[in-house]
Amino acid sequence: MKSFESSFKRLLIVSYRLPFTFQQTDEGVELVQNSGGLVSAVLSMAERMGQRQDDVTSKIHWVGHCDPAFQHMDSSAFENDTFIAHPVFMDKAVHKGFYEGFSNDLIWPLFHYFTSYASFNESDFDNYQQANTRFLEELTALIEPGDLVWIHDFQLMLLPDMVRQAIPDATIGYFFHIPFPNYEIIKLLPRTWRQVLIKGILGADVVGFHTTDYVQHFMQSVSEVLTLPIIGQRIVFPERSVVVRDFPISIDFNKFNRSAQEPAVVEARQQDQALLRGTKIIFSVDRLDYTKGITSRLQGYERFLIQHPEWHDKVTFVMTVVPSRDQIGQYQEIKREIEETVGRINGLFGSIGWRPIVYSYSSLAFTELMALYTACDVALITPIRDGMNLVCKEFVASRYDQRGVLILSELAGAAQELRDAVIINPTDTQEVADAIRQGLDMTPQEQERRMIHMRKHLQNHDIFRWSYNFLAAFDDMMGHQPDLETD
Ligand code: GDG
């Protein structure tokens, strides 16, 4: 059996977003490469496959959606030293139905168990199919024998099978970044939709989820919807099998650990601590979304302030909400609710010299994010549902001082791994209030004990290990292909 290091010639990534953002400058359009987890993982994976970044002939190809406003640009404008982007342009109405409609108004709420927010619309499903077909067209023009195609996330569930039909011997990986819900939720989808979606994913050779729960849910849907045999971690078709496994995504541990000690971060941290007059700091940062549990978190903090007047004037909750989808009614509604609650709490408990909540609706520069990760005493991360949640992992990796307390929702995928966090249920206001008190009162020895365990885990399970494991799963798949019966 060939090892994965030599099995593939090139890595082709497909995700809704490209690894760049485009910025208009006086000289034209400039590509700014994103520095998120997926980009780091892809780079490490390409290196392992022998695709060296200093070799211009082996840049990494990335297929992703692009605004038609950039359609006039020459293809050379979509390249930097590392990536060649293959922009997928599509009709605006198709994009709206595919992205805002089917992806964000149906799959996102449904798969996060917010069933009443889900909107079922036949034309959105048509647009989802058309959009996945547009990705296929772009991708098939690119695929060569020996390529590994790695498709990402819920916007592209149909694509693996579309590729399989077009190029039967293609090697395809698929990773799902949000929760995969239990079958009772999948059953809410019209019968044909659920069949097409599950079959779509199974076009891949290796399918990855964050947790074993999501894997089990997916397997249950496969057996209910398509009645296919499942042997261990493999789903068996007559001519091939699909490996389905958990691959908990992670972060670049060393980057966060190192950045936390950089002079600019140290300076920003000291400034923040001085501005907050040495009060203890609770910190949270999330995109504006109903899944993030921001209002329940505020209710927990309010209960804590009611029950613990001794903490008044001694603690500040720095809460950053990053703007997202705020043209949409539901999102405007939660923003209004958050801002009303913040105003009420600050009005009830605050004084001339003390603001209980320092709230901002904006995104933080990386240095400021690092300053807050390392300045805070408690990170309060309370999603109602989250596939993984990288913020909590970044917080832990930043704490080279082995101080700080992580309060983490049991409904985040990360809670399966970070067992030394103070684990709470975000809808239990009293539990959140108690956890805040426990976190603020925790002895340095106890903080250190918990941090050491969590940091060790993340050091051993970083983003590079994630991509390594995903790639290695193809060995498993290849090794098993000829002798399906022997398992
Ligand atoms: C999906 C799943 C899963 C946030 N605010 C700022 C900022 N961030 C960065 C964080 C972190 C990332 O954004 C958010 O990561 P999450 O994991 O929380 O969520 P998503 O990426 O939105 O979504 C999720 C993930 O995919 C990976 O599979 O964990 O469950 O929903 O990296 O640092 N960065 C800066 N300023 C901010 O204000 N610089």
From TrEMBL:
It comes from the Bacteria. Belongs to the glycosyltransferase 20 family. In the C-terminal section; belongs to the trehalose phosphatase family. This is Trehalose 6-phosphate synthase/phosphatase. It comes from Spirosoma utsteinense.
